[in-house]
Structures
1.
Amino acid sequence: MRASLLSLLAALVMLAGCNDAGDAGAAGPASPGPAQPAPNAPPPVSAGPGATGVGQGGAQDFGLFRQILDAGQIPAPGTLDPVGFFAEHKLDFPAADCGDEVCLHGLLGVQRNLITGAGCTVVQIGLNSPIRLENLERPPMDLVLAIDTSGSMRGVAIDAVRRGLLRMLDALQPGDRVALVTYADQAAVAIAEADAVEDREALEAAIEGLLARGATNLYDGLYTAFGLAERWRTPGRQSRVVLLSDGVATAGLEQPARLKALAEAYARLGVGITTIGVGTDFDVDTMRELSEVGAGNFYFLDDPAAVEEVFVDEVATFLVPVALDVEIDVQVGQGYLLRGAYGTNAWEGGLRAGRADIPSLFLAGRQQAAAPIEDGRRGGGGGIIVELMPLRDQSGVRERELVGTVSMTWTDPMTGDRLEQSTRIISPHAAGELPEQGFFTNATVEKGFVMLNLLVGFQLASQLAYDADVGTAIGVLDALRMEVRRWLQGNPDPDIEDDLRYVDLFISVLQRQQSQTPVSRPPEPWPVD
Amino acid sequence: MHPARALSHPAWWLALALLAANDHLFKGAGVLPPALTGKLSDFAGLLVAPALLAVLVRARTQRGWLAAHAAVGAGFAAINLAPAAARAWEAAFAWTPLPWAITVDPTDLVALPMLAVSAVVLGRWARRPAPVGAALRTAGLALGGVACAATSPPPEPPFQPQAQFPWVQSRLVVANRSAVTQIVRVRALRPGVQVDCDAAWQQPGELLARELFSPAQTWLLDGGRALPVGDGTNTCGAFLIDGPEIPARLVVAFRYGPVQLSTDASRVANDRALFLDTDADGLAWAPHPALFLPQDDALEAPVGRCAPVPDGFGVSWSMPPVGTAVILDHTAAPDGCHAFDLAFRDSVERWFACLPELALPFGVEDTVRIGTLNRGQSGWPVDGVTVEGPGGRLVLTRGADLPPLGQTDVDLDTCERGARDACGGYEVALTASFTGPDGERVAASVGEPVLVGASTLVVARAVWSLAVDTACSAGPSAGGRWFEAAAVTPLGAN
């Protein structure tokens, strides 16, 4: 919750930072247009649809934000997790032909932002993989399922969990090991160890026997599950806990910090965690943080029925890391300063350089941005967008065309080898120069740019509404809506179209609120705090 | 006795001028507080009216002079005490070009002593043999008559200009001296936030993180208007103020007691106004001692013994199952938490205890007695649990004190700089030193076991809290100390 004000700060920094580059040309937002190659520009690269997206774990969706809007309410600041938001957008980066199983891309975008029209310079860091999911041969895995069987799970939720787990059994392979831990007042080991294929009957019986009653002793459930996973831990096998819960801890050690410390300690030993939050009453921040420290994913499932799919998804894709201990370093050129990064919670940066340490990279589900969106999560893999600020004084800058360098080192999960890639980002324009139609290395940067504007617009509107400035919040989203619609006319994209639906919904929710509590001059006598 | 001579006294003319100026210039102009302008006319009028009446009734004797004063006093008292009398007076003047509107206000009687001043001072002047010029007499009668008759303006319509510029009780005001209406967002500290106000005044940027403030109240502040901030009830008078055009500033106003302040930017005292002015770069704050820059960047955390304790490190436990039990199983996780499966007479319960590394005085199959504790070494309140086993007693405490350590003096050393916690609070690390009966002194570093008397103590957290959001973090209150510690004492010691 406390991240809320920081979100506003990030949003304001984003808009304020872009102002610095907006000297050239008239004010007012402009839709990103087609890239305009300058005579000395590097040739725009073509996108590589079909390459599999690579995600960094953490939140896999912005389900909570959507659910609040769908319910006709205003999301609090900090509700929209940038990692989850980006993860639901498929970006078609250039072809994954780097020769490794993960390819790094650094792409440039220079354009006016869609809210205030100030100039923005962004570097989009993309990761994709030549691995085709249908051809994927994954190593055997050790999976410990920690399932909340407290009383609040009774009914639809526990039924959906049973069905989901049974479907997941079909996606497992010979050699996979499964354990099942349930927790309510206390944790209980329903299946201590079972082969996914040979012990199928026992697993099915245990799953069918899940009953919901009692309190929620989250810590005990997690403690017990990690204990089993650690006991199995074998080199060359994936070891992971999947924690499902629909509520906050009401028994045992209840402090969220303890859960996080436990997940962090086991992550250091190589046991990851994926978290699944069901409904609307669980502790979103804690579940998200657990996945982030535990090198896993976080799913927000406001509809319990969606539980049926999520176990299969997790087994099919996200349980297969393509890179471990990933370090992404960004070094900016002499003509720029680094303002911040979006799309990762792992960023640490200064004015000239920044880095993100990501425990694991996973394959994402969707192959192409144009692929239709099914119900629920969109998948995609997302990316990291770094915002730069061109220096006003460019005298003394030697390599003026150099925007920056992005490098990545990681450990191959199969071989244990430490690998490295890097890319230089070159601009055809001088730092701070804002071409009339903007400049994008390729079309996917445009999409990333629009994504970023949507993220900032949503965050800003949430914060403004939180601060009772509903009129300005509507103004922000109105400006955004107009520009995004214009962009979509030339660039049809199912992700952005879906986002636009939520811009419209957000505006209508705000308008309803405004009609109830108009912001006006202080009444007389003015209230004092 | 010549009452007309009284009309030549400078005091009478001064009172007349004050009466006219107050009724026709000061009232409603916001120059003076309404409470003052209301009373000023009464004081001046009671000096002007008796002499005027005495002249009009041609009083020639001391008795007549005093009777005129008594008549004015009686009339004045009647219209300020009895609504019927006030309405009758209004009715009597209603047909004249100068109608009266009287507010019945018994507190106006505070001006009655002016009658005595008039009777004595002007009476002495009236008894002087010096002649009075006819012109002066006529002018005095005319001006005095008009001033007294026109003393109260007609009732004001509900939305007169002065109603838009109220005086309000506040510590300070934000005064918009620009010509443009501004959106101003004012955030007070959250209800559960506690702050050491003196420390906040010394280092506001460090102590008052954005996370500690509530959602803003948003105002449209017209040019020339002033917005009150702080009626005296808010914690430390601390606010975070900004706007789309207004640079963010922290306001710490607790050193300014609440007073009546004008909401007209041009009339508020400079020391109580946080002025917003237009300069070349846009809108800017004029310097004021209560204005501070917020410090949004992450604070550089101190290192070494003053370093903050990482999240998840500390001492905690699940609800202790009080009683005697046998330990059936004991496991420990890499986060420092231990799980004990305890067999009581009728049940088996799992109990968790998280503590820094420490040799426990019991193990599997041992019988232990579990109890609770609510006072620490110096008698301060703690939340504590005790587990007695065959090898000794384990004490875990969280609170304002360390575990009981026998005959030992405790000294605390406070670090100069602190760090923010995850909830936006600010705390400074403490180092505890212990002096036993033998005079030997040992200092306890966080996480390091130290021998204090017969006990082995590990302090997991020792802080002095200067700002805390009690709704977010389960720990100390502001201005208070907080310890989390574990101690093992062998059986028979202490």
2.
Amino acid sequence: MGLRGDAAVVGFAEYKHERKYSGPRKFTIEQWADLAQMALADAGLEASDINGIVCSDIRESGMFMPATIAEYLGQPVNFAERVDLGGANAVGMIWRAAAAIELGVCDVVVCALPARPIPSNPQPQPVNPMRYFGASSMNWGSPQAEFEVPYGNLAQNCGYAMIAQRYAADYGYDAAAMAKLVVDQRRSAALNPNAAFYGQPIEIEDVLGSKLIADPLRMLEIVMPVAGGGAVVVASREIAAKCSRRPVFVTGFGEHLTIKTPTYAEDACFTPVGPASQQAFEMAGVTPGNVDAAQIYDCYTITVLLTLEDAGFCDKGEGMQFITEHDLTFSGDFPMNTHGGQLGMGQAGAAGGMTQTIEAVRQIMGRAAERQLGTCDTVYISGTGGVMSEQSALLLQGG
Amino acid sequence: MDNDFAKPLPRPTPTSQPFWDGLAANKIMIQHCLDCATWVFYPRSRCSSCLSDNLEWREVTGDAVLYTFTLTRQPTAPHFADEVPQKLAVVELAEGVRMTSTLVNIDEADVRVGIKLKPVFAKRDGVTLLLFEPI
């Protein structure tokens, strides 16, 4: 079962992540075209080489999104997917692209997640109640609308906080360890010009002194919304051989979905990234002990803690100790989120996970500048959508 | 508050109506699968374990423990500003099913995972919410 490892990431593009974006405003579909062009150019490929696309939502269209994008780019495609996995989008897009390439239906696939603000509409539209309440649905018959929203179980903070609270009851909780995780990532972000917190390292006291949002989560343990986005080009081994960059082969993946709302999780402290990661490691023939870096989806500190444990980097209940005992910066003994993670980059909506995949590619290609690892051939990446309800894992390896 | 949205309340469906009717009569009705003996929550047209549609509504006591919680320091939506800190809870009934709820009649300092809870039937505009308080 699985990939042969014959598809590779050959190029990428990443917008600078900015808290206040002041550049020219473009529609999502225009940003898609910009990112596609930049990623193709990075790989040394042409627009006419595209024969597959993987997208997520675009703001200008409610359906038929892949066809709309193919038409806009002017490129016919043999493979088109719209992925709806929230923060697991980037990983989900890349393995789907690799699978389609290995099936032989296409050989150059663009996966893009633009997330800059679009132009202000001169004719203001009515506010969508779903967006207003931060819910996934306010439709009649939706389980969330009926059994979550009326109790105020809305957006993401409270769900992650409740998972953290249960973890604390089952395994104990060390707020200073969670703060150190943020501090290590911010040290890496401080050297990443694309990060919203470029040049802004912090100390443990800053995290512990930041505002409590939903017990036990504090402001600096929660991603800051930013403008950003990114894209990668996935290509066949034959195309990759002609590209200018070191090919970054997709050798393992896993994806696992269980619930929408963690209230209904069998055990809130065992997350879907466990089975997803196990599959990815087995497929690639890699173990957690022999990766050169881990780029772990980090919408909240608790997400990283549970992923470290469930993916097998340490045992259940030992994540806090693992964080305390290891230097997680780019120069440390367990390099993790070497771009600063989303806690350091800022989170550009559902494009956030793209920063983790791009940093993995950047490190393997040897293009991480001041943050470059000495040896980087194998990187683990995770993606998390919803409230640890839909998760994915990826193994990338340099050719 | 400058928006047109009312505080969100549940809208019963043909499938869930017996649950909400039960709450209106101060009863907790939960579905039980007659084929595999699974308790099912939230209400569904088929069993969440075996997909059988052989489900029976049964009244349960509402005895529960607190599975987890958070205290919100800023409202999860503007309409909940008057409840801050919201005592959001995942509650586990004696039958094993879990549900999202809110704790009432309890001090912040007393909210801990594992405390015993009993139901509170909170009448709202045309619907009854199921809240919980400590025993």
3.
Amino acid sequence: MDFKTFSFVILAVILAPFAGGLLAGIDRRLTAWFQGRSGPPILQPFYDVIKLLGKDRQVVNYWQIFCVHIYLISSVLCVALFAMQADLLMIFFVMTIGAVFMVVGAMAVPSPYSQLGAQRELIQMLTYEPLLIIVFVGIYLVTGSFKIDDILSYERPIFLMLPLLYLVLTFALTIKLRKSPFDISTSHHAHQEVVRGVLTEYSGPYLAILEIAHWYEIVLILAICGLFWSTSWIGLVLLLALTYMAEIVIDNVTPRMTWKWMLTYVWAVGISLSFFNMALLYANSF
Amino acid sequence: MGFFQELLHKSRMKSPWLIHFDCGSCNGCDIEVLACLTPVYDVERFGVLNIGNPKHADILVVSGTVNPRNAKVLKNIYDQMPEPKAVIAIGACGTSGGVFREAYNVLGGVDKVIPVDVYVPGCPSKPEAIIDGVVLALEKLKVRKPEKDTEPLVADLKKAREFYENREERQVTG
């Protein structure tokens, strides 16, 4: 690894949580604006996390602490791997390990709310993971590689070849962002349904660590979205801004649904959209 | 060290998460508490969130009188909240028992069971008064008192394990 890559990785790992936190703050502000409120300050997510870090710890068992740290490490590693321009599939597997450990930590405690939230989180993972793999395969069909440096050196924006697969990726983004209509595992907006889902038994500093890891994951998924228009900075920023804006609007206009609806709807729409996009690719290549 | 201490104190003041417990209120005060979240009052601009989980909350907002049945529940919720924390008693019933204080099944206000930091009178309390009460409680949250005990993590884990193993003895039945 040369010096340039190394400094790039360090920079990404340091800047990613700040970007994720700012994004969450802007998100809350915009949501409040849509609802006719003035909303919290942009830096509110940072205040929340610092406050949580300063609270007394309340541990249930050591598994919880272990799982929280593995989740953080895997999220940081994902962002670092992305900055190293490594393999997309490798990043996907590392991300899955983190998500599974968060569920394991929630399962390790006797609270029924935590258990129920963990089951729902597993179903969410079951929903978005095949779609992510299909998106990566689509990228492979266009660029001929899973490696990010090869994808970045492709001369045209791959969004033009894979517009429908980009839509499929935004489904995964919505689930990962814990946005309505898919916020069933943590009840991010309901605040009270199944208490707090998977997050119920994580408290104080451990909740703060989960939040920081979550920011890393958001940045990672947005970076994967950014791959779709990697040829120009203006196109990249426009695409990401439009995507995130659409996420906030969808979050505000849709109610929370059940896991059955989520699984059938996302798989049916996602897989058929991917099928059409693949068919389009083959039609073009003849 | 001074900078981080300042930052922590500021963050605690700027992000109070509430848990609201209805201790047998007539729902008058409860509706006023919920009114604070609406666009008219919008407490989220102060960073206040209504959290349903005592393990995440900083401020316990209690409305209504305490009776022997729900006193146990109230104590349990209070004990589950990690320090630093504050308690606000809302309404005439929450502060003193109100018109029900002489009833045979009523223990009195919330302060008969747990220590209360802020009393918000009124029947029901106005949303402005409740927001004012939350602002008063922030001072309590700012600095952790008494100073944080520096118990090692292993001791905490051992305690948690014993707590789990004795769960049947603690069980409240009937």
4.
Amino acid sequence: MIDAKAIKEHFDGDEELIGELTEIFDGSYPKSLAALAVAIQEKDFPEIELHAHTLKGMISNFFAVELKNAAANLEKIGRDKVDTEMKADLIYLEENLPKVSVEVRKVLV
Amino acid sequence: MDEKPNLLIVDDDKMTGQLLAKRLTKLNFFCDFTSNGNECFNYIKEKKYDCILLDIVMPDISGMEVLKKIREEQNNFELPVIMVTAKDEVSDIVEALRLGANDYLTKPVNMEIAVARIVTQSKIKKLVGESLKNRQMSTINTMVTTLNHEINNPLAIAVGNLSFSKDKIVPERIEKALAALKRITVIVKKIDRVTKGDMEEVEYSSEVNMFNIHDEEKESTD
């Protein structure tokens, strides 16, 4: 799910920083994810765009392409205000975001 | 750069903002961070920054609105702003540049590119500031030289009339000498204001400002 090589390259192999990043991520994404879920439930498109955009930014640090795409899809739906299927991408994010830090820690020495 | 650049990072995503601040601090930048777009104006009032790294998409107030407000007070040489965004739409970047952003970075931020762009903008800011200061000094020097020349005439009048009055007091000549000395006093006050930089800049034409050094007191003539 994550691109370990790209992460290490991007952060110049600074594993301490990567570890800190992961901790901050674990503490940050749940709030945005919960807000996104509420926004989708209420079909609040500006809020969908905002929270999906925030998640996309956080995810981009881990070079997790499919997760980023899921967030980007929702961001686009929010921006275009198109009432279309959003649950699949939301579920994908809910199931896989918790796995990011687990995978990152596996690749750190 | 000799001095460590002062940066302000504005991003509602605390993770991204704090991470960027950490990485830049490790590279010897001074970094402040706020996740609130409205709060950044207080930071800018309190401290002189060399560059601001500004997210585009934020709740409450967008990066574009923050940028517009900053540009109402400071131009892009006075306070460089680099937009930092996960947005990859060309139109958003173009809009930001049109509103006065100096440059942009996309997330995830490549530190080499970020440092290069921050340092470039900070150097330009410094160079423009120095150039303006040099122009001001040059203008002030020219003004002081001109005013010094202006003193010669009334000085000659004062000396001439007082010399004439050495042997015999001629009230009219004393009056002329006094008027000339008063004129010198006014000019000396102007020189004092110019050298202290105590001048109001007023618009002369749509492209040119001038320094207003006229006193409120009526300037006497001989």
